[in-house]
């Protein structure tokens, strides 16, 4: 049994569906205004927020809901929406299967740097005109999804990719020349995959640089230029995210969590956690 509520299927009534879109105000009405519980999905989620008040907590980081925001939530991220009034916007969900069926490579999702399955993931703040454009894409996806036209999902897939490209181009971190993007994207993708595989045992950037056959300085330079964070910050974020999830959702003791995450002594884990978050593991557990 999952320690945290997990949604495995895009559509719980029909597990064969790999795409879904709903108006956020309709979801609010179905919940009768009650905040949802902390949960995660086995699929991707985009929240196109036109008007909102409240908070959106993603992996224990609280973001203030406001107008003209876009949130990107990766599979496995724990999040919770608390709304002070009905949010106006769209919730778009899709699986890796939907990407594959519409010839959207997973590499594309990783290269656009909008979905981060660890580290801080603030919303993309857009202007009024940009939100009007994203709204038009969302409305057309909503219309197509409710109908039964020929090539329905191919059309939705094209609109989804267009929405993602538009958001990518609006993101300030991506104002780099094309050559830099192309050369560095593959390295960053491989680095992130290694972090997900080895964060429990490889705690230093040098280990990842060695596996990638480059120097730690080169790894840091490329990762920072494409993501805005150093390799060390990515590694620390992955470890602290895992630690927070274990502290909150698992019955493991602090000592057991320390060993689970590759620390030889609980004191080393406590010092690392406090250095990265500003509070001790025990204080964090009491505060959430």
Automatic annotation (TrEMBL):
Q: Name one GO molecular function term.
A: DNA-binding transcription factor activity
Origin species: Flagellimonas aequoris
Q: What is this protein called?
A: AraC family transcriptional regulator
Alphabetized SUPFAM superfamilies for the sequence: Homeodomain-like, Regulatory protein AraC
Q: Does the keyword Chaperone apply?
A: no
Output the superkingdom of the source species: Bacteria
Under the heading PANTHER family, the entry gives:
ARAC-FAMILY TRANSCRIPTIONAL REGULATOR, TRANSCRIPTIONAL REGULATORY PROTEIN
Instruction: Give the matching PROSITE patterns.
Output: HTH_ARAC_FAMILY_2 (PS01124)
Give a yes or no for keyword Ribosomal protein in this entry: no
Annotated SMART domains: HTH_ARAC
Which residues are in the HTH araC/xylS-type domain? 189-287
UniProtKB keywords? DNA-binding, Transcription, Transcription regulation
């Amino acid at each position: 049994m999952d320690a945290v509520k997990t949604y495995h299927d895009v559509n719980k009534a029909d597990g064969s569906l790999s795409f879904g879109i709903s108006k956020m105000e309709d979801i609010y009405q179905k919940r009768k205004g009650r905040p949802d519980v902390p949960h995660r999905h086995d699929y991707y989620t985009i929240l196109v927020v036109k008007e909102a008040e409240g908070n959106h907590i993603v992996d224990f980081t609280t973001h203030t809901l406001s107008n003209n925001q876009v949130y990107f939530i990766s599979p496995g991220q724990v999040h919770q929406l608390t709304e002070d009034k009905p949010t106006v916007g769209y919730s778009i969900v899709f699986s890796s299967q939907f990407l594959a069926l519409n010839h959207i490579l997973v590499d594309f999702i990783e290269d656009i740097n909008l979905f981060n399955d660890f580290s801080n993931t603030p919303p993309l703040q857009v202007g009024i005109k940009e939100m009007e454009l994203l709204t038009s894409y969302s409305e057309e996806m909503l219309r197509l999804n409710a109908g039964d036209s020929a090539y329905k999902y191919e059309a939705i897939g094209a609109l989804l990719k267009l929405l993602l490209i538009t958001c990518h181009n609006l993101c300030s971190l991506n104002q780099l020349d094309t050559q830099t993007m192309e050369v560095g994207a593959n390295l960053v993708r491989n680095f992130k995959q290694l972090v997900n595989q080895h964060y429990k045992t490889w705690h230093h950037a040098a280990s990842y640089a060695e596996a990638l056959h480059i120097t730690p300085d080169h790894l840091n330079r490329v990762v920072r230029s494409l993501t805005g964070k150093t390799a060390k910050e990515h590694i620390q974020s992955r470890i602290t995210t895992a630690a927070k999830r274990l502290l909150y959702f698992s019955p493991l003791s602090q000592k057991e969590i320390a060993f689970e995450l590759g620390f030889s002594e609980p004191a080393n884990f406590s010092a690392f956690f406090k250095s990265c978050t500003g509070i001790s593991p025990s204080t964090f557990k009491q505060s959430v």
